[in-house]
Amino acid sequence: MPITAAITAVEGYLPDYILTNHELSQMVDTNDEWITSRTGVKERRILKGKEQGASVMAVEAVNKLLKKRGISAEEIDLLIVATVTADYIFPATANIVSDKVGAKNAWSFDVNAACSGFIYALTTGAQFIQSGAHKKVVVVGVDKMSSIIDYTDRSTCVIFGDGAGAVLLEPSTEGYGILDFKHQVDGSGRVHLYQKAGGSVKPPSIESVEKKEHFVYQEGQAVFKVAVKQMADVSAEMMVRNNLKPDDVAWLVPHQANKRIIEAVARRMELPDSKVMLNIHKYGNTTSGTIPLCLWEYQGKLKKGDNIILSAFGGGFTWGAVYVKWAINS
Ligand code: ACO
Q: Which atom of ligand 1 lies nearest, measured to the CA of 260?
């Protein structure tokens, strides 16, 4: 059998502070009923503290991952971090994580694909296992969304939260792991969801700060419509081209942007709610963190050989789906 990239361990990290809908309703003109019915979010985690970047959460998740698998950081060949809230514009957050966990023999880089970041990074990492180039690849999805959210903007501040998840990829010759993927982009969608300033088009200035251009800008409805269509289409296509009927799919692991989007995708795939991983009610949209955090929390329910579809849509626009055969019995 050809070499495939199996997920051999998964871990997650969430900061302690819980920001509830009730607390948000005291900050902006919103309420629990609106947030719950329109998004599915009840609470989210926030990383507090001065100069605490996304890497803080990533390091926690990776250290736990290594401990769980019983390997040393020096065994890691490659470490990829998916994030849109990097510690710095440069260097890559992956380099900081590699340094802090002691991955002395690894190379590392970041992937920036917004909410599709984790699946893009997972697929990228898998190529290095499948080619035989590497034996151990760590893929992290982490975002400190609270660092780019305007907590006076009710249309975005209710949605996002902070968190990190990480997986280890290792070679399998028994057909487990990442078996298929499809990723797509439509760069023209960038105008509907982005951070206007801070990059080379608009470096930080007093004006950009005053205009609040360092925060997430999102035209919710425009994004919603495309997200539902593209996430559903690509997930259904992943089933068809791998000859998977609804009964053959054990789990859908959808990006957690909005419960209504997730429900639409599951309907299209003809999957019951009981096969859909959900953590949006507890953590909101943690951007690159949602999918590995779902895998982490549901791993006790996963069985070796389960067919799993990961699916995401995010800023860019970026989207895609990955077909994984689960490799471990928890
Ligand atoms: N509380 C109360 N009312 C609100 C709130 C709030 N928090 N936010 C908006 N409203 C109001 C609006 O002002 C509007 O009022 P109006 O009718 O008087 O004008 C009304 O609610 C409806 O607003 P919409 O924006 O149409 O609300 P919608 O149902 O579309 O929900 C949401 C907004 C949750 C943002 C939704 O559009 C969505 O989920 N979009 C997709 C998000 C997504 O998938 N993003 C991609 C991933 S993120 C990434 O890549 C970083």
A: 39
Tokens coding 307: 């067919």
Q: Cβ neighbours of residue 102 under 8 Å, at least 6 residues apart?
A: 72, 73, 74
Neighbours of 56 (CB within 10 A): 21
Does the N-terminal peptide bond of residue 254 adopt cis geometry, omega within 30 degrees of 0?
A: no
User: Going by C-beta distance under 8 Å and a sequence separation of 6 or more, which residues neighbour residue 203?
Assistant: 197
What is the 8-class DSSP label of residue 41? Answer: -
What spacing in Å lies between the alpha carbon of 284 and ligand 1's midpoint? 14
| 255 catalytic per annotation | yes
Residue nearest to atom 26 of ligand 1 (CA): 221
**Domains contained in the chain, CATH given:** 4-175 (3.40.47.10), 179-325 (3.40.47.10)
E strand or H helix that includes residue 118: helix 117-130
Task: Give me the DSSP letters along 198-254.
Answer: SSSSS---HHHHHTTTTSEEE-HHHHHHHHHHHHHHHHHHHHHHTT--GGG--EEEE
Amino acid at 289: G
What is the pTM for the complete model shown?
0.97
Q: Is residue 35 classed as helix, strand or coil in its secondary structure?
A: helix
List, for residues 264-312, the tens digit of each pLDDT value: 999 999 999 999 999 999 999 999 999 999 999 999 999 999 999 999 9
